[in-house]
Specification:
Elements lengths: L4 H36 L3 H21 L4 H19 L1
């Protein structure tokens, strides 16, 4: 454990931020799995709704700095291709 007061604070702040980032990433992964489950079930309507949720989660994670904005954009693009393939 750190002896300096500011170092102790940094440890606490890092822990809080780490927990927030884990929560956001976990929620994002769950949302993506729900979208892929809808795709696997060939349910186009459910997949469209799930896709909107995934895009929202990706944008939020990118804005918070949990994932890079280019990663969010790449994932949205790849999932959109899968969604369009289901509709075609």
């Amino acid at each position: 454990m750190a002896n300096i007061k500011s170092a102790q604070k940094r440890i606490k702040v890092t822990l809080v931020k780490t927990l927030r980032n884990k929560m956001i990433k976990s929620s994002l992964k769950t949302t993506i799995k729900k979208f892929e489950a809808a795709l696997a079930g060939k349910n186009a309507e459910e997949a469209k709704v799930a896709y909107v949720n995934v895009v929202k989660q990706l944008d939020m994670a990118a804005s918070k700095g949990v994932i890079h904005k280019n990663m969010a954009s790449r994932k949205k693009s790849r999932l959109a291709v899968k969604l369009n393939a289901l509709n075609a």
